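Record type: monomer structure entry
Structure origin: computed from sequence
Chain ID: A
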Amino acid sequence: MTKVEFMFRGLIAPVFTPFNQDNLQSLNLKIIPQYAKYLSDKGVNGVLVGGTSGEGTSLSLIERKQISEEWAKAVKITGQHLMIQIGGAPLPDVLELARHAESLNVDSLLCLPELYFKPSDAEDLSNYLKIVSSAAPKTPLLYYHIPMFTNVNIHMGNFLQSIGDKVPTFCGIKFTSSNLDECAQAQKADNGRFAVFLGNDQLISAACSMGIDSFIVTTLNIFPEHSLEILESWRNNDCKNANQIQEELSTIVQLISKHGNWVETMKFAMNFVSPLNLENARPPLKQLSPEIKKSMELFLQDLERI
C-alpha cells in the first residue's frame, strides 16, 4: 500500500443533510448543487458530508451513498475539497462506505471509532483504522475524535505520536473537544506530521494563537464570515480583531444553542439566515417547539439588522 498525501489545510464546513418535507423525511438531493455553490460563494472551500451536524449516523447505508454521490457531483463544479465521514456503523458498512467513497474520487475520508466494541487504547484504534484504510487504499483517512459522543477518550497527542506508518493512508484527525492543550499536543506530535482540524466554534482564535490553522466548525454554514475573518486577522498578526470577532461568534453560538440540541438549533438557524431550506433534523432528534422557533427568529432577525 502506497502512502497517500493530504495537503488540505484551512476551513471545512460540516454540511447539514437536506430533507424533504414528507413523512419519511426523505433526502432532498436536488438542493445540494445550490448548497455547494452557496458555501463556495461565501469563501468556504471544503465540505464534510455525514458528520455530526450532517446526522450521518441517522442515515441508512443507501442514503449515505446517495448523498455522497450528489456532493461528489457538486464539488466538480465548485472545486471544493470533499471529505466524507464513513464511520458510526457496523464495520462491514463502514468498509462499504469507504470503498464507495473512493470510487467517487473524494478527497479524504473521516472515520468515527467503533461505537460498541470501543477501542481502549491507541493500538486498538490503530488496528481499527488499518482495517478501514484497506478498503480505500488510495484515499487519505482521518480519525474523528469526538469523545462527548463516542466516549472514546484516547489521548490524541499520544495517539498521533504512536501511530507512525501503521496505517499508510492515515493523515490526521478532526478534534472535537474543548481540551486545547491536548489539541496542541496532537498538532505537534511526530514533528507536526499530521493534519489537525479543530471542531470547536468557540475556540478558533485561541487555537490560532497556538499554531492550529485548520477547522471544521458548524457555523461555517451559517456565519462563515466570522471564521474567515478570524483566520485572516491572525495571518495579519491582528490578534485584537481576531479575539473580538471570536467573542461575537461565541456569543451567537451560545444564544442559538441554548434553545436545544446543537444540530436542531444550528440547522434551524441555517434555514433562517440562508436561502436554503434544509428542513428539520431527523429523529431521534426533535423538532423545535413553535415558541422556541419564534424566539430564535427574533434573535436572528436582530443579527441580520446589525
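Annotation 1: The first strand starts at residue 11 and ends at 14.
Annotation 2: The mean pLDDT is 96.
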